[in-house]
Amino acid sequence: MKISKLTLISLFTIGLVACKKDGKTTDHSKDSLTAKKDSVVVPEVYKEYYGVYTGDFAGKGMITSEDGEQYEGEVYKKISLKINRITKDSVYGQSIVEGNQRPFRGIFNESTKSFVLDEPGNDKYDGRFEVKLNSDSLTGKWNAFNKSAVKAPVKSLRLVKKEFVYNPNFMLNKDNDLIDWENPKNFVEKYTDEETGKTESYTASKNRIASDAVFKVNASTQKLSEKDLKNLRKLDMEIIKNSVFARHGYSFKKATYRNFFEQTDWYIPVSNNVDKDLSPMEKENVALLNRFIKYAEDKYDSFGR
What we know:
- The structure is a single chain.
- With 305 residues, the chain is α+β, with helices and mostly antiparallel strands.
- It has helices spanning 2-38, 226-229, 234-247, 255-261, 280-293, and strands at residues 51-64, 70-86, 91-97, 100-109, 114-118, 127-134, 137-144, 154-162, 179-192, 199-209, 300-301.
- The strands form two sheets. The protein has an eight-stranded antiparallel beta barrel.
- α3 (234-247) packs antiparallel against α5 (280-293).
- The longest helix has 37 residues, at 2-38.
- The N and C termini lie far apart (113 Å).
- Residues 1-37 have low confidence and may be disordered.
């Protein structure tokens, strides 16, 4: 009798274990099906519209003059919209303007060939792009989510699709303006009247100017030495250094550098961090330039605008 009871208990225990194992197997099966469902790749569409669209970004806003007065005028900037991925339901990409890179997500309407693209909204400069595609161009407007946080809460866009290409031989054009208009410096000058012989002092505003060395020295193609840099102006070396980053599509926050490179046809800002893209030689040259820039001097002169 005891043997029969033990046998029944053993069989019951084995049955429970088997049930538990079966239960676990069933759960794993469900998890596996769910994982497969979640890992389904959403097909991409309209890949021909992928790329960088760059151009004018302008609107009416309040501008502060040099003497501190405010007036309404045209707030003008350059912007790039980079479309990375389009699916049936969504569009993904980035906006890049003045060193500020923001992701966006939106929709594409095939019938009207138009995009509605929203930046995240957690930055005071975020907004919505409503643009229409016409061949290789995008035109439309941008509306700030926080209209009181920006000078021009509504801006128009006129962008052209351009292929970004890194070319180490890209240089500033010889007819480019080499004056730094963003950082004027006041100097006390003296003037002697020829008739009276009286000498008076006055304050003159002057700007930095680069030399033609910026057309000759290329930190992307040649290994620089101290000899190459020792007689250069500070602005020369700043331009030579930042030409490296401009060739890689860096979006500059400082207006000084934007003004220089936006004069060229080849400069297309695509990222606010290109450090990983620099070649070993470029990195070495940038480090050397930084050392010399720290102690270099500038040449200032007076210019009319």
